[in-house]
Known about the structure:
The complex is a heterodimer.
Chain A: H1 3-24, H2 30-56, E1 61-68, E2 71-77, H3 79-102, H4 109-128, H5 132-150, H6 156-187, H7 206-224, H8 232-235, H9 241-250, H10 252-268, H11 270-276, H12 279-298, H13 303-323, H14 327-358, H15 369-372, H16 374-388, H17 394-408, H18 413-438, H19 458-476, H20 484-496
Antiparallel strand pairs in A: 1-2
Helix pairs in contact in A: 1-2, 1-4, 2-3, 3-4, 3-9, 3-14, 3-19, 4-5, 5-6, 6-7, 7-10, 9-10, 9-14, 10-11, 10-13, 12-13, 12-18, 13-14, 14-16, 14-17, 14-19, 14-20, 16-18, 16-19, 17-18, 17-19
Chain B: H1 5-21, H2 24-28, H3 33-37, H4 39-46, E1 51-55, E2 62-66, H5 68-90, H6 99-115, H7 119-138, H8 146-175, H9 183-197, H10 204-211, H11 215-220, H12 222-235, H13 244-265, H14 273-295, H15 297-303, H16 307-324, H17 340-355, H18 357-379, H19 382-388, H20 390-407
Antiparallel strand pairs in B: 1-2
Helix pairs in contact in B: 1-4, 1-6, 5-6, 5-16, 6-7, 7-8, 7-12, 8-9, 8-10, 9-12, 10-14, 12-14, 12-16, 13-14, 14-15, 14-16
Amino acid sequence: MNESVWLPLLVIASSLIPGVIIFALAERRVKLRTTLNLCGALLKMALVGAMLWGVYHGQHYEVRLALLPQLELVLRADALSLLFVTLSSVLWLVTTVYAIGYLEGSPNRSRFFGFFSLCVTATVGLALAGNLITFLIFYELLTLATYPLIMHRGTEASRRAGKIYLRYTMAGGALLLVAIIWLYTLSGTLEFTPQGFLDGIDEQHHPALIIIFVLLIAGLGVKAALVPLHGWLPEAMVAPAPVSALLHAVAVVKAGAFGIIRVVYDVFGVDFATLLGVTGPLVIVAAITIVYGSLRALFQDDLKRRLAYSTVSQVAYITLGVAIAGPIAAVGGMVHLVHQGLMKITLFFCAGNLAETLGIHKVSEMNGVGRRMPWTMAAFTVGVFGMIGAPPVAGFISKWYLGMGALEMDQGWLILVLAASSLLNAAYFLPILYAAWFCEPSGPWPEERNFGRKETAWALLLPPVVTALLALAVGLLALAPFTPLAWVEFVVQREFVP
Amino acid sequence: MMNSDPYGALLWIVVGWPLLLAIPAVRRCLPMADYFAILPALLLLLLPMDFSSTLSWLLLGTGVSIDGERRWILATVVLIWALVAMKRRATPHTTPHGQNTFYLLTLAGTLGMVMASDRVGFFSFATLMGYSFYGLLLWGQSKPLEAVRRGARSYLICLIIADLLLFEALLLSAFNPQMEVSRLYLLMVCGAVVLKAGIWPAHFWLNASYRAASPLSALLLVLPVVMALFALLRWLPLGHVDDGVAGLLILITAGASILYAGWRFVQRPVQGERLAWLSLFASGWVIASVGVGLIEPLWWLQYGTLIYPLIAAVAVILLMVALLRPPPASPSQSGDSALWMGRMWIGCSSLSCKLFAGYSLCYKAGLQRAKQLQNGLERRDLIGLLSNWRNATTLFVLLGIALAWLVN
C-alpha cells in the first residue's frame, strides 16, 4: 500500500477510531476523552493538509474496496472533496473545543462525543466518496450518527425533534436509494466523473433521467433543507449548541448541498443537466428557498429558530450557484459552502454562549447583552454582517460571485433575489444587534452563571472568536493563495475547462 | 502617479491606523487617540505628490491612492475630525465609554472612502463608515431619546437600501464596464447618493437626526453628506457620459431639494432643523451641478474639477454653522430663536405664506398626510408591519420571483 491509498483511509480512521474508543470510556475519564478528541481532530487536520498539498500538486489519492459484485466502495480525494473535508476538519476541531466547554459537568458525554466523532467520520466519508453508492452509505451513516445527538438531552421536545429528523432524512435516503438503483440500471456505472457520465445515454431515456434527477435532488434536498423539505431543521433546534453547529455548518445541511453539487457536476454534468432542462427549475426552488427562509426567520423570537431559518435561506445559495450552471456562479455557490459554514457556526456558538452563560434563548431577552458579553457579541456582529453580505466579511465574496454569475448566464433577475435576501437578512439580524448593543437590559438575565471577571468560559469564548476572525480573514484576503476562493477556482476549472 | 513602497505604506497606514486604534486594548496604551488617529492623514496632506498602492490579494484586489482632487476631500475630512476631536476633548464628560470604537471605525471608513482607488474598496469602506456612523449616533446614550432613535433608524434604513443599490451598480459595472454609461447604473448610483446624503425626498433621516443632535453630533452629521456627494463623483463617469434624461431627473431632484429646503428654512424651523435645511440646500446645488454635467459632458470636462472645492466649501459652511449653533433647547423652547437670521427668515416666511396662501394650504395638507403615514410606519416598525401581513408578504415575494422568472 502506498501513500495515495492509505491517506484517505487514515483521514477516516482519525475520527472513527477515537470515536469507537470514546464510546467505551467511562464518564469520569474526562482527560483521556478530551485528549482523544483533540488529538483525533488535530491528526485529521494534519492529514487533510497533506492531501491538500498533494492534490494541488497533481497527486492522486484513491482507495477501492470490493462491496458487491461490480460495486466498489471508492474513496477518492479530488479538489472538490477536499474543499468539504477541509471545512469539516477545521470546524470539527473548533466544535470539539466548544463542546468540551459546553458539556462540562453534564451527563452522557462519552455517548455524545462518540456519536460526534462518528458524525464527522460519516461527513468526511461522503466528501471523499468516489461514487454514488459510497456516498449513499456515508449519507445514511450520517443520519444515524446525528439522530442520537439531536435527542441527546432526552427531553420530550428533543425526542420529538429526533423523530421528525429521522422521518425526513430516512425518506430522503429512500428517494436517493431508488434514484441510484434506477440510474445504475440505465448507465451501468455510478462513478463520479468530472463533467458527468450520463451524456452518452440514449435520448429515449432522457425523461427517465429527468425523474432520476428530481429524485436525487429531493433526497439530497431534505438534508440541504430546500423548501418544502426543510421542516426538520427548525425542529432540531432543541439540540445542544454544538450539535446545532454540527447540523448547520459542519455536517448535515452541508452534506445535502455537497451532494447536489456532486449530482449536477459529476453525475449529470453541467452541460447535460442544462440540456435536460433541469437546472432552471432548480434555480427557482433555490430562489424560493432563499426568500422563504429569510421571511420565516423574520418572525421568530427564538434565537436558534431564527438562525435555523437563516440556514434554510443561506444554504440555498449553494444550490443556486450550482443551478445557474455557469463558472462564476459555481465559484460563488461552492465558496459559500465554506463561507456559510464559518459564519453560521460563529452565530450558533454565540447563541450557545448566551444560553449557557445568561440563559438567553429569545431575541426579546437580548437587550443590553453586548455590554455584558462584548466578545461574544462582537463575534456575533461579524457573523451577522457576513450573512447580510457586507464587505469585507466572507458573505460578500459569495454574493459577489453569485451576482456576477447570474449576470454571466443572463439571469439578471436573480440579482433581485439576492438583494431581497440581503434586505431580509438585515431586517431580521440588525434588530438583534440593536437590542444587544444599544438597549439597556430590561432586567436580570434569565439564568446567569458566574465566570468571575471573564464574560464566559474560555472554551466557549475562543471558538466563536476564532471562527469570526476566520470569516473576516477569508473575505478580506479572498484573492490570496490557499484561501477557499482560490481553491474553489481550482475546482471549478476542472469542471468547466475540458 | 508614483507607486513606491514607503508612500504606499503611508496610504495604508492612514486607513489602518484608526482601525488599529479602534481596538480598545490598543487605544488604552495611547492617550489622545482621537488626535493621533488623524495624524497620518495630516502627514499625507502635507506631501505634495500623487501616489497609489494596490494589494492584489486584499478583498478583490483593492488599492488606495491620492491625487490633487481628492486632497480637497481629505482636507475636509481631516478638518471635520479635528474639530470633532477638539469638541470631544472640550467636553470629556459627555464622551461615553465605548463610543471611541465607533468613532475610530467611522474615521477609518471615511479615510478609506477618500483614498480607495477602486469601487469595491470604496464600497467596503463606505459600508464600514455607514454602520459605524449609525453606532456613533446611538452609542453611549444610556436612554437614547426617541428622536435620536428615530433619526438613527431612518438613517439605517436609507443606508441599507443605498448599499444594496450600490452593490447592484457595482455588479453591473464590474460585469460589463459598458454598463457604467447605462441609465440604470446612473440612476442606481444617484438613488443611493440621494438616500445617503439625505437629499429630498430622502431627507427625513437628516432632518430627524439634526433635530435631536448634540453639538458634537451636529458636527458629525456633516460627514455622511459630504461623503455621499463625494461618492457621486467617484462612481459616475462624469464627462464621459451624455444622458439628458438621467441628468434632467437629477436636476429635478436637486431643484426640488433646493426649493423645499429654502421653503422649510423660512418656516420657523425648530432649532436643530435649520442646519438640516441648510445642508439639504447646499447639497442640492452640488447634485444640480452633477445633473448639468450629465446633460453637458463638455461642460463637466471644462469645469468639473471645481466640484471638489465646492464640496469642501459646503462642508466648511455646514461645520461653521454647526459650531455656532446654540446648545440644544428644551422642547418648549424649540422653534423659538433669538438669532437675527431666524427673525429675518420668520419675517420672510410670513410674507411668503401670505403671497402663496392657497398653495401653502394644499402643500400643508399633503405634508400632513405624509407625516401621518410616516408616523404610522414608525409606530409599527417594519418587522411588526410585515408580521401582521406575513402570508400576504410571503405570497407577494414569491409571486414576484415567479413573475421575474417568467418575464426572463
